[in-house]
Amino acid sequence: MLETTHGELSRRERQIMDIVYQLGSASAADVRARLPQPPSYSAVRAMLRVLEDKGHVEHRQDGPRYMYEATVPVEAARRSAVDRLLRTFFDNSLGEAFATLLDAAPSKLSREELDRLADMIEQAKQEGR
Amino acid sequence: MLETTHGELSRRERQIMDIVYQLGSASAADVRARLPQPPSYSAVRAMLRVLEDKGHVEHRQDGPRYMYEATVPVEAARRSAVDRLLRTFFDNSLGEAFATLLDAAPSKLSREELDRLADMIEQAKQEGR
DNA sequence: GGGGACGTGCTAAAAAAACAGCATCTACTG
DNA sequence: CAGTAGATGCTGTTTTTTTAGCACGTCCCC
Question: With an 8 Å Cβ cutoff, are B121 and A122 in contact?
Answer without folding.
Answer: no
